[in-house]
């Protein structure tokens, strides 16, 4: 009798507590979202600037100063870390990188990776994976190697198929965990319209539709890219997502100068809770638009 009473007493004490804890978890997921900020660094591309690689390095240094002065949880650099992979360029990058006191996730671009050999060198030089993902405050950040994703070079074939599978797996797993998804990579999915012709800057039509179908299916609203050396936002036909393009700190071909995209995440709903602001690189003496367009860049397609 005493035991039963005790159990009932204990149950009546523990059960509501257990219910309350479960309830709290639900509440935390719905209402306990913690706001955060992050930044998007464009092509750092040491060696591409018209004023010499030392000045590209100086602008990377300025970017580190500027980022350190903000309360970002992390930043993502969207590829092309150096222009030619010359050892002095990589050395300059490695020497300057520790100046960032904020975690900066590094992505590869076509100047970093254009073969399996350079893919392996990228991983070794920067001590990172060429594609990866992480979760932060209810958001999943998926960072793709767009070179292997969109290339049809035979030597990349196993990497390409493995990365598509990995991408889909990340999308499914984020959805299963009720996480909002933000995607980043180097190349633009498209520049003006979803069905435009292939160009140097964009995902070829061969894979563009497959990519956009996944973006729409998994309710991705934000995509961060580089490569274009311009700063602008590109919108889906149905306005369901925004592609943020930022020029970076080596060269720009528009009137927006060198700069960094700042993001504020104010809610657990990425459709309405993510706002972006473009901020010029501070401390630059010369904001000079580059004439012409790049040439002699690594080709990542088979012919
Ligand atoms: C490159 O930077 C140096 C000093 O940091 C500066 O004196 C020089 O004018 C810069 N070059 C150009 C072309 O802006
Ligand atoms: C490489 O990265 C790992 C994991 O992020 C870290 O523990 C290690 O210290 C890094 N190595 C070098 C040489 O930076
Ligand atoms: C490789 O892809 C490019 C761009 O999509 C295309 O122009 C080219 O024809 C493809 N080459 C082969 C051999 O599949």
Automatic annotation (TrEMBL):
UniProt signal peptide: 1-20
InterPro entries for the chain: Calcineurin-like_PHP, Metallo-depent_PP-like, STPP_CPPED1
* Natural source organism: Lipomyces tetrasporus
| Coiled coil (UniProt feature) | none
Q: Gene3D superfamilies from the entry? A: 3.60.21.10
Query: What is the protein name for this chain?
Result: Metallo-dependent phosphatase-like protein
Q: What are the alphabetically sorted keywords of the record?
A: Signal
Span of domain Calcineurin-like phosphoesterase: 36-230
Cite the GO molecular-function annotations of the record: hydrolase activity
